[in-house]
Amino acid sequence: MGRGRVELKRIENKINRQVTFAKRRNGLLKKAYELSVLCDAEVALIIFSSRGKLYEFCSGPGMAKTLEKYQKCSYGALEASQPVNEPTQSYQEYLKLKTRVEVLQRSQRNLLGEDLDPLNTKELEQLEHQLEMSLKQVRSTKTQNMLDQLADLQNKVCVSQNLGFNFISL
User: Fold this and answer.
1) What pLDDT score was predicted for residue 7?
2) Which residues touch 60 (CB under 8 Å, ≥6 apart)?
């Protein structure tokens, strides 16, 4: 007997969601591999987890070459219908957004301490300064939260003492 249909909705429990993601991701990667082997198809699969971690599979010569081939096929027809000297506004916007995403992803990896080798000394110093400023902001916010909690506790002690409760002095 087969399994019943699963209602497709977001899994609220974080642990169950992560387990399901891992199982389904592995199943999807397996299916992509099987499709490439059985049908001699060039398959590329890109998955980003909710945490932003990248998972990929490529059966061809490499992900970059497969994506380049995809872009030529997808946007080749668009370019063929337009005069060569007049690229469409949406394609230009796509290129700008693509560049922006690449820059943001590189920046995110750098902030996580990854892909630092291509950076020169000046860029590393800028990254260090940015991280120091971020750390100062985190510490400042943490200190403010602790001061707020301390003030709340002191108010509670004052209220309790005014109501006649005796506490051992802090």
Assistant:
1) 80
2) 42, 43, 44, 66, 69
Determine whether 135 is exposed, middle or buried from the number of CB atoms within 10 Å of its CB (0-12, 13-18, 19+). exposed
Contact 21, 28 (CB under 8 A): no
Q: What single-letter DSSP state applies at residue 6?
A: P
pTM of the model: 0.44
Among the listed residues 59, 22, 21, 57, the one whose alpha carbon sits nearest the alpha carbon of residue 39: 59
User: 149: number of CA atoms within 13 Å, CB side?
Assistant: 6
Q: What is the pLDDT of residue 43?
A: 93
Residue 57: strand pairing partners: 45
Please list the ranges in the chain whose pLDDT falls under 50: none
**Pair of tokens at residue 86:** 């007049």
